[in-house]
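User: Working on a comparison across species. This one is 2,4-dienoyl-CoA reductase from Paucidesulfovibrio gracilis DSM 16080. Can you predict its structure so I can line it up against the others?
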Amino acid sequence: MTTGISPFDPLEINGMRLRNRFMRSATWEGMADADGLATEKLARCMGRLAEGRVGFVVTGHAFVQADGRAGSGQLAADRDECLPGLASLAETVHAHGGACALQLAHAGAHALSSGSGNQPKGPSALDLGRGQSCEAMTCAEIGRIVDAFADAAQRARSAGFDAVQIHAAHGYCLSQFLSPHYNQRTDEYGGPLENRARFLLETLQAVRADLGPDFPVLVKLNSRDYLDRELTREESLLLCRRLENMGVDGVELSGGTQFSGRNIPVRTGRPEIPGGEAWYEDAARQFKAERAMPLMLVGGIRSLDTAERLLDEGVCDVVSMCRPLIREPDLVRRWEQGRREPSSCVSDNLCFRAAMQGDLSCLTLERQSKDEA
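Assistant: Here's the predicted structure for 2,4-dienoyl-CoA reductase from Paucidesulfovibrio gracilis DSM 16080:
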């Protein structure tokens, strides 16, 4: 049985209207200033996506505490000084007819220690390899981060964003607590899934209490971690049931961490089309068989044919993409106009090298253009 839903059909999520089912999945742009404040360049980047007909634009992860910053050029949402710049991002997206969410994150064990002068802290004291180590957070520190997420969510609403997305995937702080790879605690935040999920659930309760019932709150979650000791698919789907019951308005399903080998969230190598697309489709199918809340699916989607199939078969409600929209911000417009060729993104991740230089872009496309010239 098919749904008849097209990627170009609108969707409403708790009062937020999306003009189509295409979503820009959050990715670090490297375009904030040294203090994490939004720049005109970052606003143009967000506006360009909306101008290219992306229905739902999610910013790159914004840190909610200075000691949870992941890297240079990262957007901040940790203080009121951020509000004017954040408002410019929302205004630019709205000016081009898009809806927008601010993704909120804390890097936890992978925080940029040089940014705060402190040793990074995660669920447990660990040697993470690659010269990285972290200390264990105290319960009081966890509580302060919960409050920081709620405060940042309030800033998102004040700045004019249509929604917030809580980043609990890819080995960031909330994901670390969910994962036995990182979380070796024996207190109320460690052990069984109920305890490992406590930090995330407390964060969502605080965010919802501050924002009220009528502001969309979304979660980005791993379908699994792809680690020897991991958040499993079964645990992830159990957690989704809890999220739905507590009033979360939608989940973006992804997978992997920086330690997940070939299953890292940004896998390299152009996926085979269509066979190599939609990496988390099986988990998404199981999710939709059990849950009614909207599902955004990211991971290797490169063609309109696959986007149409996923929606028509009810695998997801929104198709989420990242790197294809770095290479071609007009991709959705092109597809909407009937030019159906798949994205030419080759997934070599050179775009992140550009982000390190403060200008997220497709270096491969730039090199090809120079060669042709």
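For your comparison, note: The radius of gyration is 19 Å.

User: Helpful, thanks.
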